[in-house]
Amino acid sequence: xxxSARANQATARGALLPSLNAQGSASRGVNQPDxxxxxxxxxxxxxxxxLDLVGAKSAVSKAxxxxxxxxxxxxxxxxxxxxxxxxxxxxSLSACQQLLNxxxxxxxxxxxxxxxxxxSAKAGFTAPSVAxxxxxxxxxxxxRVTQQTASCDLNVKALVALTALPEQTLRKKLQPLSAQxxxxxxxxxxxxxxxxxxxxxxxYAAERxxxxxxxxxxxxxxxxxxxxxxxxxxxxxSYTSRGTETSLQTWSFGPLALKLPVFDAGQRKANVLAAExxxxxxxxxxxxxxxxxxxxxxxxxxNLQSTDARRLDAETATRGYAESLAATEAxxxxxxxxxxxxxxxxxxxxxxxxxxxxxxxxRNRAWVSLYRALGGxxxxxxxxx
Length: 385
Known about the structure:
The chain is α+β, with helices and mostly antiparallel strands. Helices cover 65% and strands 15% of the residues.
């Protein structure tokens, strides 16, 4: 698309300049009966130029340039979208691996509880149903680990598709990073300047579409006015026969032709109306893009503020439920708590840990959303590169 737009721009820019064509020919033979053999050589230059009296061709050239810039901005938008998707998938993989570590620790705890419950049941201290409940809990934990492992593998497959890297190479790159959580930017954004939205590739592309539509209106209007063309040629002829050479040079300047539209049954007026309607549509689309950009930025900021406000509460809840689980486990070993109480404490502790990790993932995704909403670091000055 970019190469096609660049070619269209070159064509439109070239139409502003005169065109020059060269031609040449050579022949040898007998031109009439009883005449000697003759050699004829011709060469010439022909020039043509349509003067841009009312700016019709300038409008077309301006539209082609704006279309090229808009196409390049759309390419940058695709790059930003891919970068954001890679970041989101990476954060999802990091959160998944942390949840997998939590699930494995939970499985180890459930397995130990099941072992103790089995010994207690065999000794006759607890009912067989208690041991059965402990075994079921351990099996449920194993199932959760298997499910979480599959989820992490799916994230890896998604990264392979997004990065086009071989899976083994990607896993090697991710291995040293899996031990720690993915960190988001530790900064706060109180407000975003309105002019920042102009660096979004989609907003810039929509603005270029408005320029294209405006130029097309000017071009359509220009077709209703006179058109002036100027031609010229320069030629040379050499005729050789029986050793005698005859040369002839010719040139002409003109004609200077003026074409004035008189009657077209309203076609040119209709073209102007259609171009103006397309311009109004482009303006409406541009306004819609700006409103959407404002919405995305505000939503990302709200999500950032929300996740930051919930962070301390989530950490407090996780610590509290972890301490409660540890105390309940100690009471269970001493026979002061039932297995049901232990399972309830474990369920709440696991849920709080999962909620905290999911909250971190939500915050990371909010940062990525803000990155994309602000244009992903793209600069409109680079559009022509």
